[in-house]
Amino acid sequence: MTTQLVWFRNDLRLADHAALIAAAARGPVVALFVLDDETPAAWRMGAAQRWWLHHSLTSLGRSIAERGGRLILRRGRAGPIVRALAAALGAQVHTLIHHEPWAAVQAAEAGAVTEHLGVTLAPPESVLSGTGGRYRIFTPWWKKLLEQMPPPRPLPVPEVRWADVGSIASDDLASLGLLPTAPDWSGGFSDWQPGEAGAAARLTDFARRAARYDASRNLPSVEGTSRLSPHLALGEVSPNAAWHVIADAVGETVAEPYLRELGWRDFAANIIEQFPDHGDSPNREAFNRFPFVDDPAGLKAWCHGQTGYPIVDAGMRQLWATGWMHNRVRMITASFLVKHQLIDWRHGERWFWDCLVDADYGSNAQGWQWVMGSGVDSSPFNRIFAPIGQSAKFDAADYIRRWVPELAKLPDDLIHAPWEAGVGLIRAGVKLGRDYPAPIVNHEAARARALQAWAAVKAG
Ligand SMILES: Cc1cc2nc3c(=O)[nH]c(=O)nc-3n(C[C@H](O)[C@H](O)[C@H](O)COP(=O)(O)OP(=O)(O)OC[C@H]3O[C@@H](n4cnc5c(N)ncnc54)[C@H](O)[C@@H]3O)c2cc1C
User: Fold this and answer.
1) What is the structure's pLDDT at 458?
2) Could you tell me the CATH number of the domain that includes residue 267?
3) Which atom of ligand 1 is nearest to the CA of 361?
4) 290 and 262 co-located in one domain
5) Residue 110 falls within a domain, yes or no?
6) What would the pLDDT profile of 223-246 be if each residue is shown by its tens digit?
7) Which of 30, 37, 42, 323 is the most exposed place for a label (fewest CB within 10 A)?
8) From CA 404, how far away is CA 307, in angstroms rounded?
9) Tens of pLDDT along 306-348?
10) Which residues pair with 32 in a beta bridge?
């Protein structure tokens, strides 16, 4: 029987993995992962996700070893490595289809590869309008996708006959250098459990809370969302499994708000297939003329959670400490950077890319272009999030206390805008400018400046 090479990419699981299932049915299997920093070039995996990848590969390698196989690790340009190994083994290659622009390059360079579905709920090219075109607006796209839903039920880990790979060279995981050293900033990542078992445990835990998702998903102080995004980004659980576990737990109607968010992930794949440079170029041409300011000090203050706006600083510190940020706060922090500070969205996007354990090229670019107003489906530029109003509306006081402990003693009604707290600050023992920064911009003035910048762009 012909040897089958399963080329794992950001789909680090054994269950519901169509490439592994197809390979296992055809012959003895060799499992391969290639750390490829070359093909994605500027979009090579960021630092926080590399931490995740290290642990995810440990987990996958262990699962394969427990079943009698061995995960081969290599580093370099994936396509030629896969092609050479397949030639040396006389193997057929199987992998899952990924939608990032570099994934297609990798597959083309790898030679004869059989690509399987499993990264999205449905193949992006299968969701077409009545005239056969691709959608660029979420709501009609979602309606159309629903015609194909539910997705196929997830399949279990297949019986695999692992090939004897004793003579095949493999890099040592440690030699890939994925973990941070000097300094090791990953201390706050200990709540995560990367790997397929961790993903399954998180999904089971969320299934118990899923009925409350719609009511709590916008509240950063509460654990209202699934926090499954890093597991989905590295493919430790399939979106089909997430769909079915949650729909089975609470019923499709109650699950709809959550399933719709899973839909946004598919929609991002649909967008980057149409606009491969979505991470670098605005969809709306006018935004190429936007008068961004060059403000390295302002960017640094934003990155390090030192803007003087508690909700913004809490989010940026949560991101740095844990590699994740609540979705509502992602929108607020992103809006603050591009509209209050007038800093180019691509700086923020890059920072997120490096700091997020769930970094996903399509979802990240889509999130940033949505906030900027430059995406095909996005919030209009003149919708400027008021950070203080958002912070109060979504009850972020406890969230701020956790991530901005300097302000912990301020009462709920004063914590969102400490510069207005008056004697409240004295009572809480906080001196602005000493214990916590004064706001780096004035909200009303910044808003007016942003609208002026936008008016100039529109005027051409
Ligand atoms: C500026 C900005 C940048 C973002 N960057 C990323 C990113 O790099 N990677 C990423 O996975 N998400 C990104 N998002 C989307 C969203 O914030 C996260 O997916 C979500 O916070 C993950 O938390 P969760 O798993 O608890 O989500 P849940 O609310 O439980 O949602 C379920 C799943 O749906 C998907 N999802 C939810 N919201 C979105 C969305 N708006 N777009 C695409 N998929 C979504 C995620 O896979 C998530 O796990 C970004 C949003 C913004 C505004």
Assistant:
1) 87
2) 1.25.40.80
3) 8
4) no
5) yes
6) 999 999 999 999 999 999 999 999
7) 42
8) 12
9) 999 999 999 999 999 999 999 999 999 999 999 999 999 999 9
10) 7, 72
Burial (CB < 10 A; 0-12, 13-18, 19+), residue 255, is: buried
Q: Which atom of ligand 1 is nearest to the CA of 333?
A: 1
Please give the structure tokens belonging to residue 301.
Answer: 């203050």
Ligand 1 contacts (CB < 6 A) are 217, 225-229, 232-233, 258, 261-262, 264-265, 268, 327, 330-331, 334, 352, 356, 358-360, 363-364, 366-368, 371
For a pocket test of ligand 1, which of 43, 192, 217, 261 has the largest count of ligand atoms closer than 8 A to its C-beta?
Answer: 261
Q: How far is the CA of 229 from the centre of ligand 1 (A)?
A: 6
Residue 168, in any domain of the structure: no
**Is the residue at 51 inside a domain?**
yes
Name the amino acid, one letter, at 155: L
CATH number for the domain that contains residue 441? 1.10.579.10
Structural tokens at position 101:
């622009």
pLDDT at 1: 86
Minimal-distance CA residue to ligand 1 atom 49: 229
Look at residue 459 in the predicted model and tell me its pLDDT. Answer: 87
Please count the other Cβ atoms lying within 10 Å of the Cβ belonging to residue 357: 25
User: Tokens at residue 103, please?
Assistant: 């994934």
Using CA atoms, how far residue 360 sits from 88, 236, 450, in Å, is 33, 14, 28
Q: Which of 49, 214, 259, 265 should be mutated for ligand 1, with most atoms under 8 A from CB?
A: 265
The total number of structural domains in the chain stands at 3
- 113 shares a domain with 14: yes
In a domain, 270, yes or no: yes
| Domain with 256 in it | 120-152+195-274
